[in-house]
Amino acid sequence: MKFKLFILIVALALLFVPGIAAQGTPAPEEEEFDFERAYQDYVFTLDVYNSVHADYLLSKAQYEQAGTLVAQSKAQEATTKMLETRDDVVTTYLTAIRMRMVEAEGVSDITKNGLFSRIDSEVAWFKDHKKRLPSAGTLADLQADSEEASKRFMELTQTVAYETLSTIPFGKLSLMRTATGGILSDINNKVFQIRANGDKDTAIIERWALEIESKITRSLDKEIEAQALIPNFTSDSRNRNPDHRKTYNEIIFKLDESRQFLRDATEFIEEIIREITTV
């Protein structure tokens, strides 16, 4: 059986939540359920899966060597348990992503609700898949169940996971741009007053303000370019085998460029403030 999809999940978790420390046990029931709690649940479930998977490999090896009905029965039990836990890993991971989006700032409710609906659909599918596993009659049936889950993950689940994780930084960037634009507007109003009162020559300040406005515009352009890459996550007639990690990295690169333009704008704003306050 193939487990590459879980290598992907681990990589995503480490990439998107670097500030969360892995915990060996789930948080107490009375603790508020938030992203950190959901992430801890995922890490705990992943630890359980790694242990169960080791038992599965041992039972499989013993069955292949002995070939007895007893060994076959143990191998089937271990396989069922492993696949059930594997489904748990997917559902807890998706739940962690959902909670991360719940707490994300700057993302519209329409966007959030659309992603929530798709995440919930995937969680429901894997929970139902887990319930059906004990009814498998043979190891071959379990193999088919495993391949079904892998196919679902590759074609649908990881797509919504990547889209959700890619959408989160858009919200932060939007808030940052709005704040920068608001400060620039206040500066322009102040410069107008200074020029009207004849307090000082504002030519250089006005030129810097135009440069700040240009930086904000270029930041927005880069964000639009990043947004245009989101459809690349989806498999269709033009994109049969999407490279989710490549698309994600391209989006983050564009957003980093956008963020850098805003950082430059902020530095220019600081210069303008010093110039305005200099007598």
TrEMBL record:
Signal sequence, renumbered to the chain: 1-22
Entry keyword set: Signal
Protein's UniProt name: DUF5667 domain-containing protein
